[in-house]
Fold each of these.
Amino acid sequence: MPIEIENVTYTYMPLTPFERTALRNVSLTIEEGSFTAIAGHTGSGKSTLVQHLNGLLHPTTGRVMVDGADLAAKGKAAKNARCCVGMVFQYPEHQLFEETVAADIAFGPKNMELAEDEIDKRVRDAMEFVDLDYEKYHSVSPFQLSGGQMRRVAIAGVVALKPKYLVLDEPTAGLDPQGRERLLKKIVQLHKKEKVTIVFVSHNMDDIARVADQVVFMNQGEMILKDIPQRAFFEEEKLQAAGLSAPQLVKLLKGLRANGLDVETAAFTVEKGVENILAALRRKRNAD
Amino acid sequence: MEFIQVEDMSHVYYPGQENEHAALKHINLRIKQGEFIAVLGTNGSGKSTLAKHFNALLLPTSGHCYIDGLDTLNTEELWQIRQQVGMVFQNPDNQIIAAVVEDDVAFGPENLGVPPKEIRQRVTESLQAVRMERYRKFAPHLLSGGQKQRIAIAGALAMHTKCLVFDEPTAMLDPIGRTEVLATVKRLHEEAGITIVYITHFMEEAAAADRVLVMDHGEIVEDDTPAKIFIKVDEMKRRGLDVPLAAEVAWRLRRNGIHLPQDILTNEDLVVALCR
Ligand SMILES: Nc1ncnc2c1ncn2[C@@H]1O[C@H](COP(=O)(O)OP(=O)(O)OP(=O)(O)O)[C@@H](O)[C@H]1O
Ligand SMILES: Nc1ncnc2c1ncn2[C@@H]1O[C@H](COP(=O)(O)OP(=O)(O)OP(=O)(O)O)[C@@H](O)[C@H]1O
Ligand SMILES: [Mg+2]
Ligand SMILES: [Mg+2]
């Protein structure tokens, strides 16, 4: 069953000087097995929106249904539904608190009352998922790690829960290029092989274009677009309105086109982009 | 002596203990007043550790770090050093102190003893530079991730120091915000002659610097102009890093027999080369 966000409006600190409506009447269906990416300018409401998906925030008006259960309801169904949504927060390193990396990652699985050897296996698998060498790091304190390493530990802690829905709020921010690339690949693998439903918040349009099958643009708390990447990133006006820009690669190809090279601009991978440029150069040579 | 001069400097975390870790190994480095330096390196390579030596937040465990001729190991000069080097940390939450945005931005200059009237002006200017003037009276902890990052940047700008160290300032910003922050940094460098040390995982941003340092396992393994660094595509990828998109596309086109100049770094460079 899908996650259904129905007419959700959310106001922070109502009736105070800080009152701020961060979401306005947002409706969105996240189908089981889909890969949804959410983009938008800073402060557009992305983190507020995704924090509704595991019941951390409840709508001021509207509702969020996960597997048929209203997350704001009391009772077992809502609790179970909240538990099948794993959430990697935007600054996940704030959630680290155990004495060692392994203990931190094991915290969730332990709460699920899994067997000791299953916990151990999950910790090892999760560390591999984020490219942290088990032998080197399992007994290190998370507070002695670099920024990017801490982020990896935090992500591993959520992956170890093996959630049915995985929500990631800017998971690749602060990772080095190779780390980012590998983590993206792993997330895609999780989606394809294990059929995990992914919700992915990112400021990296090139990444979104490559991995998502549904893109959502947020602007000032409103959802202004929901479409496949192949169309979304060519909606100039909406991109501008949302304070976004097309992927670097698309911008490059468009720049070439605007300057007289007859190149096909729909490409989301470097390989495809280069192929398109070569084809255009060949056509140009033949025409000369 | 150069503005920043690092001599055979090492930094070992927890020396002599079980969790001892050599994060910097015999670094030698000279940065001239007014230079714009980008620092690249994989997670854990030592970038933040190096940066924290530039305002004496960390001290060398061996060797020396001189800022404008002052040895950071000389604690009497600590005050003077901090007045010259402002720092934007990797995680803005570690930096935000006050309960209201404008107080937070004013905190640095207040500590430097700047008169109140001037502080107000600096706060306004700095908030404008990061386009957060609307949030002047807001509580920083209630801001979004990217908004906090902008406030942290404004706080450093308001210090009016000779040198600014930015540790991944754009990690949480949207594409337009990233462009704006980089433009602000370039302006500070070009117009005010401020020395910039800019740590980033975005290769496009590093391409805007005068000089790029590449760190690997606590050592500086490359130190050159962006054009010379980013022509070595294989090597950068092998190090777990990357090159700007235009440089990679150019590299792939060259391998397909297309003749292109060696110094392509930006989309504009590539457009000029291909559409002449
Ligand atoms: N706890 C809070 N109290 C009051 N206002 C808040 C709170 N958290 C966020 N806001 C405001 O709500 C709006 C949306 O914030 P949100 O964190 O959802 O943005 P975002 O799209 O995730 O931004 P970013 O890309 O910077 O992470 C912002 O204007 C922010 O200032
Ligand atoms: N407070 C600390 N105590 C012990 N070791 C530390 C501490 N901070 C960092 N380290 C270790 O020193 C090394 C360098 O860390 P540093 O934070 O300088 O890396 P970095 O290049 O900034 O990485 P990132 O890109 O992830 O921010 C890492 O291996 C890290 O584990
Ligand atoms: Mg956010
Ligand atoms: Mg760092």
Note: Chain A touches chain B through 53 residues (CB under 8 Å).
Amino acid sequence: MSDRIFDRETMLDLSVNFIPLGILLFFVLLFLVLAPFPGDPLIVLVQMSLVIIPGIALLMLTYYSGNAIEGSRDDEQAEPGYSEADAEVARSAGEE
Amino acid sequence: MAALVGAVFLAALGFVARVNGWWGRLPFVDRTRVATDGGHAHEPGSGLAHKPSGITRWLTTVDHKDIGILYGMYGVIAFLWGGVSVMIMRFELFTAAETYISPEMYNALLTSHGITMLFLFGTPIIAAFSNYFVPLLIDADDMAFPRINAIAFWLLPPAALLIWAGFFTIPLDIAISPAQTSWTMYTPLSVEQSNPGVDLMLLGLHLTGVSATMGAINFIATIFTERGDDVTWANLDIFSWTILTQSGLILFAFPLLGSALIMLLLDRNFATTFFAVEGGGPILWQHLFWFFGHPEVYILVLPMMGLVSWILPKFAGRKLFGFKFVVYSTLAIGVLSFGVWAHHMFGSGMDPRIRASFMATSLAIAIPSAVKTFNWITTLWNGKVRLTAPMLFCIGFVANFVIGGITGVFLASVPVNLILHETYYVVGHFHYIVMGMIAFAGFGAIYYWFPIVTGRMYNRKLAKGHFWLSMIGVNITFFAMLLAGYFGMPRRYATYSDFNPELAPLTEITFLHQVMTAGAVIIAVGTILWLLNVVWSWKKGGKVTDPDPWNTKEYGLHGREFAWFEQQLAATDGGETESESAVATDGGADGESVATDGGSEQA
Amino acid sequence: MSIETDDGRGHGHDSEHHLPAVEDWPKGFGEASWWPFISALGGSGFYIGAALYVLGQGQSPIVSPVAGGAVFVLSTFVFLTGLYGWLYHAFIVDFWEGEAADFGFPLKLTMLLFLATEVATFGAGFIYYFFIRAGSWSDLPPIVADGEVLSTLVIANTLVLIASSVTIHYAHHALLNGDRTRFVRLLGATLGLGLVFLAGQVYEYYEFIVHLGFSLTDGAYGTAFYGLTGLHGLHVSLGAVLLSILFIRALYGHYSAEKHVSVSTVSMYWHFVDIVWVFLVVVLYVGAIV
Ligand code: HEM
Ligand SMILES: [Cu+2]
């Protein structure tokens, strides 16, 4: 769904969070298929929400942080935590 | 929680809403560096002249670096008391029967150890690093609210007095004794203990929560609004990311604990029914406590993961592998940690379907944790590893996380949990993490930044001795705990002589306890080495004159905080009396002036 | 000791620099200030006071029963002094020299973060209520059994609070449109409505406790009722204090279409408190009798 919003490289970065999402999805499906206990709607609702709500929250946070991070990406930028001036020092030092 | 945080923040916000004389005149208003609470702390060259001297300086400071040091001192004092209390317990457990201390004393020490280490050591020691270094790493002048920052710290010493009050009053022989609730403060036990020492502890805990919450708001505001021009979300450093996430967790976890603590206090003193059987029942306490408690463990470990992600690459000679993976998985842990709390309550009689849900989320949260581990290992792979003391602690951190994390995943699976719950296995699991990771990362960071904070270098031989003793001690002690758990040794017992031998074989258990005590002694010796080293080197260590003591420039890994340090060295050059002949960057202490802490390179 | 020299170095910005607080007490230390320490002392004093109060209870009190109250009052004084000194020296002293600049974002963000913590603070109480509501839900006090808890007083009070949210909203609008008189009037109305609400709450407590004999210790519902309405009442009181500050400053002409951040933040807070109240009425009053 978000394919068109993020480019390939970003999707690769975000893929790290798709794994836990996948696990959550797997369990939701599992709970739907395997329900050995007599149905009690309230409990099933709680059971499902406990997995689905964190999943949605994770999806949303991933989306927004992905947007914020990619939105401010700039190839000229210094590496995370390194100051611009210093990155130059480092570059010239590395060349020696 | 509301009253205090609220009053401070709202009053500040209420007043601040317009511009004041000094604003407009500030040199960097154009960069929208705003001092939001009147306590802007940044001193150009003339700084020294502005700082009062002696104790006044520390009581009145609003400088994030000073406050960082104060937090550090506080955390270390708490760490020492936590250590002493646990050593007394370990000596008692050397033999199966009651020997030195009463079971009541044991319970009191157990409670104090847990509370002290988590609330008075863990959170403050992280605040020490984040206060000192986040503003430097994001190129901010200070925290967004420097004065609120100071208030948040000064709430902590009274909190510690309240929490430890029960011990202070022992010699007075009045009717206050230390709480015996264990750190989880489970009801009905914690309601029924009529000892007012419990009330004092609860009040103190609430106060630490207020402090942590104020700090968290401050950090989020700082990271959102005070970043330098060239620091964006895309190149925000990993430590600040973890502090941001941690602060987000604190925002919800601590106020909720605060309310739960007040409810407990009301139950104890005003006969309300929050956790009484006819009201919410003991299970409500467990839910509220663990809804705070599980995020709390990540509140403690995430910033430490951030520190390791920051320091480890420096000595691996290459950038952190998969930086973005680490960032996103940090955020994932942050969110998911609110959805797993009941894996601490599998044994409390929940509906099996709901247990299954918590198992699912607990397995899901293990993934981002594992991702980080792979990133660290990959960073090390083929790197030019230099085994300095900070690096050793980082590697020890990763190694201990492998065991701590895997045991956690086992515990998160319901069938395994039902067997191992309330045994030493659990104690082993979380000590691999709290001691093997949180304390390790703290030590590593202290060594790494020692030159910046003190201007001197530590003694590297002692530091390495400290590492090896800690690493060996941790693995002896806590691995023995895992084994004792397999043998069925339940946790929180002062004596174990009258257990059913069918369930817990006495010989093996006794042997394992003796091993644990021996391991704990090793850790203690290591810690003493560390303490001596830090105190001595702070005063007498070789002065650091090289702005790049870790030779990170060579690898293109020079961080902003050391760039700042370089400016400082340049600014004070000649200004400072160089009475002691400045030795090279390290080892000044032991005479050898080898570059950068034994930078033996290994391909 | 090297600590002394280490940290005085400060940041590397080399430029002419004015002190954050122009004056300070007892004397300016540059960036340093006594006020945070004093405020923290007062703040912790509340806790010490509460601790002494607990120690002063029971058959054989360990300290004098008045000690707690005395320390509490003293702490309030210290705390307020701390806050006042801080704010006075940091902001008020040279208020009129001020120029406009936009630093609304950090402050509004901070208010938002604070409100997030409030969600958690209230959350714990509501979770308790849901536990008992979904649990046995027995042993109910008569006022719930015969539905008296949802009185016309509560409904009127709710309308009052909602009205106050509307007035503060339009007050802010008026300010942004440059209509100062209207702004001051609407702000005053908001404050008035807030006070009416508080009076209504006090009256309700009085009715319940004195006439209907329903109190905090009246079973699981009593705990929930007084716990939640009490917590909310504290918030409204704090809001009323803030509104009073706004109002006084508005009278002094401190706000304008450009300088209005504290109006926005206080109004965010006030809306939040209002929303919590509506939720509270729905679950705690209506929810108890349906
Ligand atoms: C890899 C992810 C982790 C999983 C799946 C996990 C799972 C668990 C489980 C299921 C328990 C409950 C054991 C029981 O009482 O029966 C537990 C206990 C505990 N875990 Fe973890 N854990 C993980 C990581 C961590 C981390 C990172 C920390 C600390 C920073 C931590 C700290 C604790 C603590 C303190 C307890 C004991 C609480 C108590 O009962 O006193 N865990 N863990
Ligand atoms: Cu957990």
Note: The pocket of protoporphyrin IX containing FE (ligand 1) is lined by residues B 184, 297, 300-301, 343-344, 362, 365-366, 369, 405, 408-409, 411-412, 417, 421, 426, 429-430, 433-434 (CB under 6 Å).
